[in-house]
Each structure stands twice: as structure tokens, then as C-alpha cells.
Amino acid sequence: MATILIADDAAFMRMKSANLIREMGHEVIEAADGVEAVELFKSARPDAVLMDITMPNKDGMEALREIVALDPSARVAMVTAMGQQQIVMEAIKSGAKDFVVKPFNPDRIQSVLWKLIG
């Protein structure tokens, strides 16, 4: 069992993702914005992070950079809406290991988690 941090400002998306990941047998912690995501990463040291790109207070790109600065081996996958390919490429260059496009299907989440945590 791994601990997965879900960072998304949409409560519905956090709930949907969390339920799916719990069904896979993992523990879930949740953040509603990038500030909270960085703080939870520092305190909980999750095995992997699913990070929405567009969030208030601190967007996913800023949070990604801070998390990678704290732990260069952090396993982060970005969650993005259709049409954000340029941002996804920037995220990969900034240390993200993979990405998921919303609306996602359960198989894609499972394959991303498998890639991140084995």
C-alpha cells in the first residue's frame, strides 16, 4: 500500500480520484490548492502525487517546482484539462513523471500510479 497525495481545487475531482485510488488499496491524503499540497508533501512524504495544474493560491506548476526542490526524486503526475499540452511539456521538464488528462478513466489512473510507485 502506498500513500498518494491528490491536489485539486475541485472537491468532486478529489473525491472521485480518492475513491478510485482507495479501491486500488492505497491510502489517500488530499490538498485543495498548491500551498496545501506543498505543506502536506513536507509533512506526510507521500509515495506519489497527483497534481492538478490549475489551482488557486499556488498553481500546480509552482507546487511541482517546490516539491521537486524539496525532493528531486519526488514522483508527481500532473492532472490537466484537454488543450494544455504546452503546460504538460513544461511540467515534464520541471520534474513531473507523467500526466493524466481530465476527464480521466480508471485504467489511466492505475497505469500512472503503476509507473510512479511500481
Concise synopsis of the structure shown:
The chain is of the alpha/beta class and 118 residues long.
Describe this structure in words.
The protein is an alpha/beta fold. It has a single domain, classed as Rossmann fold (3-Layer(aba) Sandwich). It has helices at residues 11-23, 34-44, 60-70, 85-93, 106-117; strands spanning 3-7, 27-31, 48-52, 76-81, 98-102. Strands 2-1-3-4-5 form a five-stranded parallel β-sheet, sandwiched between helices. Helix 3 (60-70) links the parallel strand 3 (48-52) and strand 4. The mean pLDDT is 93.
Number of strands: 5
CATH fold field value: Rossmann fold
Principal-axes geometry comes out as globular
Count up the domains.
Answer: 1
Question: Which spans have pLDDT < 50 for at least 5 consecutive residues?
Answer: none
Specify the biggest β-sheet. Answer: 5 strands, parallel
Number of helices: 5
Widest beta sheet: strand line-up: 2-1-3-4-5
SS-based class:
alpha/beta
The CATH class assignment is Alpha Beta
Report the average pLDDT across residues: 93
Report, as a whole number of angstroms, the end-to-end distance.
Answer: 11 Å
What portion of residues is helical?
40-55%
Q: Could you name the CATH homologous superfamily?
A: Response regulator
Rg of Cα set: 12 Å
> Would you identify the CATH architecture?
3-Layer(aba) Sandwich
**Order of secondary-structure elements:** EHEHEHEHEH
Work out the strand percent: 15-25%
